[in-house]
């Protein structure tokens, strides 16, 4: 059997054709394809606007900038995430504060956030970056209520959760990153995520002002829009109005993204099916499978189990060509973050979670016989 990774892309001949078509066209970057990708992605998640950028990390950086993060700005996030969710605050000179996770959903614990806010002087914090970890949707309605009470912005890291949703207080489906409650949401198109463009990212929002700022900062802070220029001496003229970046996504990447998006429903249904099969297989074992509350639809970017003897299981599976992963090493354990005063013991729920967690292979291209083999080896290990 071929090696089985924990996640991987799914490229069809349609995808290849879409990319080749762009290569034969007039625009390799900054053409119509990027606008089409943004429009289709916004439709998919249900947001008003979308801004395509060169990576999920670029999406986080630009978001932190337009939300006003600067020196001494304090922002709350979860320690169980990819480091980039926290790093965007540091890029802008701000300060990262963690709140512990919920032991059942593994996402940021809203009660912990509330306690942190209540126990700090008014105005201490400026924003919060909740992460739809593994594809489990954070209840953004609750976060919004808390954020409004304390005058915070919300930047939703939805990299794991395109297609995930929860039912709000009115019983309406709210999709991750739809811009209803969070000010901004970000996605990544790294090959292990739901849609692969190679490298790539997206920011979604329903705020027109933030949308315009993001577009400006994506291209060096330069505009040619006549309505935005201070004066207009001729057709060549443009103005650099802010210190921006080149965080553009190329048309080549966007074409791949549009093509991948066509299989969104198929992809998420396959992920749900894989999760169901794992859930059933591990039902009468000591393995703890992902929790699902009523009214929440998991996007299953990851399938995380909690197990005794995690390291030995990891090694055993690896010997059998099954490459699992640990998501994540708590961010406050990273040497870079330790210098800001964090230490072991600060976030006990996250730390305990880290000792037991393991992500099993989860991706639409995972074959039934491959999944059966993974299940067989996991069960065999605990026999
Ligand atoms: C992948 C990921 C990112 C970063 O995305 P890139 O496209 O790799 O820069 C940020 N946050 C989370 C939760 C991610 O999984």
Summarize the entry for a quick read.
The chain has helices spanning 13-23, 32-45, 56-66, 84-91, 110-118, 140-149, 208-218, 251-261, 264-281, 310-319, 335-338, 348-356, 368-382; strands spanning 49-53, 74-77, 95-98, 127-129, 153-157, 165-167, 173-175, 184-188, 201-205, 222-223, 239-240, 296-297, 303-306, 357-360. By secondary structure, the chain is of the alpha/beta class.
Description:
By secondary structure, the chain is an alpha/beta fold. The chain folds into 2 domains: 13-261, Type I PLP-dependent aspartate aminotransferase-like (Major domain) (Aspartate Aminotransferase, domain 2, 3-Layer(aba) Sandwich), CATH 3.40.640.10; 264-381, Alpha-Beta Complex (Aspartate Aminotransferase, domain 1). The protein has helices spanning 13-23, 32-45, 56-66, 84-91, 110-118, 140-149, 208-218, 251-261, 264-281, 310-319, 335-338, 348-356, 368-382; strands at 49-53, 74-77, 95-98, 127-129, 153-157, 165-167, 173-175, 184-188, 201-205, 222-223, 239-240, 296-297, 303-306, 357-360. It has a 7-stranded mixed β-sheet, with helices on both faces. A 3-stranded antiparallel β-sheet has the order 7-6-12, with no helix packed on it. Pyridoxal-5'-phosphate binds at residues 55-57, 81-82, 84-85, 131, 157, 159-160, 188, 190, 201. Residues 55-57, 81-82, 84-85, 131, 157, 159-160, 188, 190, 201 line the site of pyridoxal-5'-phosphate (PLP).
């Amino acid at each position: 059997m071929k090696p089985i990774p924990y996640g991987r892309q799914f490229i069809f001949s349609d995808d290849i054709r879409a990319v080749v078509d762009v290569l034969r066209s007039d625009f390799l970057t900054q053409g119509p394809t990027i606008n089409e990708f943004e429009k289709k992605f916004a439709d998919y998640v249900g947001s008003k606007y979308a801004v395509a950028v060169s990576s999920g990390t670029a999406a986080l950086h630009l978001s932190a900038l337009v939300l006003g993060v600067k020196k001494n700005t304090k922002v709350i996030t979860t320690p169980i995430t990819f480091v980039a969710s926290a790093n965007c605050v540091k890029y802008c000179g701000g300060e990262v504060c963690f709140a512990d996770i919920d032991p059942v959903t593994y996402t940021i614990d809203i009660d912990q956030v509330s306690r942190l806010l209540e126990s700090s002087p008014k105005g201490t914090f400026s924003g919060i970056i909740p992460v739809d970890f593994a594809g489990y949707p954070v209840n953004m309605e609750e976060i919004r209520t808390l954020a409004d009470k304390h005058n915070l912005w919300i930047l939703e890291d939805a990299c794991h959760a395109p297609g995930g949703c929860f039912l709000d207080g009115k019983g309406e489906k709210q999709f991750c990153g739809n811009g209803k409650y969070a000010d901004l949401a970000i996605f990544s198109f790294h090959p292990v995520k739901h849609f692969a463009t190679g490298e790539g990212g997206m920011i979604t929002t329903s705020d027109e002002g933030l949308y315009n700022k993001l577009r400006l900062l994506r291209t060096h802070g330069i505009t040619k829009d006549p309505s935005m220029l201070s004066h207009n001496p001729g057709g060549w003229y443009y103005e650099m109005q802010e210190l921006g970046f080149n965080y553009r996504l190329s048309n080549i990447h966007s074409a791949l993204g549009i093509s991948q998006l066509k299989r969104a429903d198929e992809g998420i249904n396959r992920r749900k099916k894989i999760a169901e099969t794992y859930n059933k297989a591990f039902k009468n074992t000591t393995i703890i499978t992902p929790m699902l509350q009523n009214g929440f639809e998991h996007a299953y970017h990851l399938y995380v189990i909690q197990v005794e003897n995690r390291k030995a299981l990891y090694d055993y599976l690896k010997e059998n060509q099954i490459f699992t992963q640990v998501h994540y090493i708590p961010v406050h354990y990273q040497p870079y973050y330790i210098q800001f005063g964090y230490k072991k013991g600060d976030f006990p729920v996250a730390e305990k979670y880290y000792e037991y967690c393991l992500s099993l292979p989860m991706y639409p291209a995972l074959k039934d016989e491959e999944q059966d083999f993974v299940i067989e080896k996991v069960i065999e290990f605990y026999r």
